[in-house]
Amino acid sequence: MKLIVLVVIVLAVIAVAQLMRVYDLSAKLKGHKEEDINLKTNNINAGLMLVFLAVFFGSLFYMLFKYGNGMLPEAASEHGEDVDWLFNMNWVIVFTVYFSTNALLFIFAYKYAYHPDRKAYYFPHDNKLELIWTVVPAVALAFIIIFGLLTWNKITGAPSDDAVVVEIYAKQFDFTARYAGDDNKLGYADYKLINGTNPLGVVTENNIATRLDEIDQLIADNQNTLNGLDSGTTILSAANAVKYQAEMEKMGRIKERIVVMQESLTEEVYEMSNDDYTAKSALYLIKDQEYQFIFRSQDVIHSAYFPHFRAQMNCVPGMRTKLKFKPIFTTAEMKEKTGNPDFEYILLCNKICGASHSQMNMPVIVGTAEEFEAWKADPANAVTQIVGGNEEVEEDPEAVAEL
To answer: Exposed, middle or buried, 259 (CB in 10 Å: 0-12/13-18/19+)?
Structure first.
C-alpha cells in the first residue's frame, strides 16, 4: 500500500511539472514574455500563500498531536522539575517566534502582492525596528541563560550535610557504582593502582603492595627477555627490543611514583576505603535521599546520563566531575504514574565512546532504605566490599566471578 501511495505521489508531481511546461509553451505561442506579470496569476499565487500557511500549520499541529506524547515522563528528581520548567519556557519562546514569523511571512506575501495601482514604500533604515529585533532576542536569551545558570549551579553546587556520596566509574563499556560506607567518605583512588584485582584503582595498603609486586614481576620478565637476547637464547627484532626496554623504564617510573605516594599516606587514608562497597548489576538509590555523585573515567570521555532524573555529567579521564540530585519517586511509584509495569530507571552513556557504546548502560532502582539494605544483602546482586584492599564478596564468592 505504501508503495502505491509513493507511486501516486511521484506521478502527481510529474503531471504537475508537465502541466507547467504546457502552460509555458502556450504562453510563448500567445506572445507573452516570461517577465510579463499576469495579475490574475499573481493573485492566485498570493492566495496560495494563505493555503500553504494553513497546510503548514495544520501539519505541525497534526504531528504534535500524533507524535508529541513520546516525551519523558514526569521528572523523578527534585531539581528535575526546574529543568522541565526551563525546557517548557524554551518551547514557549520557540513556538511564539515560530508561529509569529511564519504567519507574518505568508500573510504579508498575500497582503502585499503586486498590484499595478500600488507603489511600494522604500526606506533604507529604521532605528525603531533595529532596536526591537535587537532588544527582544537579547532579553529572551538573557532570561534563558540566567535561569539556566541558576539551575546548573543548583545541580552542581555544594551538597547538603546529609548527602550520600556515590562514585560512578565509567570505562568501555560499563559503569561501576562505588558507595561510600558508614563514614560517607570515598576512599582515595589512583590510576597507577589499576589492575585485574583493583579495576577502580582504590588506594589501600594491600592494593599498593599487590601493584608494586606486579610491577616488579613485569620488570623482571622484561629483563629476563632482554638477557636472553644478549645470550642468544631469545630472538627479537630491534623494534621489539626497544619496546621491551621502554616498557621497563615506564614501569620503573610508575613504581617510583607509587612509592612516593605510599610514603605520604596515613592510616586514616587507608581506613576511608575499608568500608566502601561496589555494585555493577545496578545502582540503588533511596527515595528523598540526596546524593552527591563523583564521576571518573578509565579510558575515554563518557557521559553519565540519568534521563528520568534530568541529570547528566561527562566522565573525563584524569578528572573528577560531580553533580547532585534527590530522587522523589520510587521505581514502583513511577510504574504507577506511567502506567507501565515494566518501567525501569536507567543510567546510560550519552557520548559515542566506541564500538559497543549502545550497550553501555546500568539499571537504576529507587526504593526505601529498608529495601536498599535487603537489596545489598542479596547475593544475586553481587555487591562487593572493599576489605583491606582487594574487593571481596560479602555473601557469595561465585557472584564476583560473573562480574
So the answer is: exposed
Question: Which range marks the domain in which residue 350 is found?
Answer: 162-180+276-403
Instruction: Evaluate whether 347 touches 163 at the Cβ level (below 8 Å).
Output: no
Q: Rounded to the nearest 5°, which phi and psi values hold at 115? A: -145, 135
Same domain, 172 and 315: yes
Cα–Cα distance, 280 to 402 (Å, whole number): 10
d(CA 391, CA 387): 6
Q: Among 156, 189, 213, which residue terminates a domain? A: 156
* Contact between 370 and 284 (Cβ < 8 Å): no
The burial class, CB within 10 Å (0-12 / 13-18 / 19+), for 208 is buried
Select from 323, 314, 299 the least CA-distant residue to 351: 314
Q: Which three cell numbers stand for residue 201?
A: 584503582
Is residue 195 situated within a structural domain? no
240-255 per-position pLDDT tens digit: 888 888 998 999 999 9
Say how far apart CA 302 and CA 107 lie, in whole Å.
Answer: 48
DSSP secondary structure of 246-257: HHHHHHHHHHHH
Q: pLDDT tens across 81-125, in order?
A: 899 999 888 888 889 989 999 999 999 999 888 887 888 788 888
Q: What domain count does the chain have? A: 4
This prediction has a pTM of 0.76
Q: Is the dihedral of CA 52, 56, 57, 58 positive or negative?
A: positive
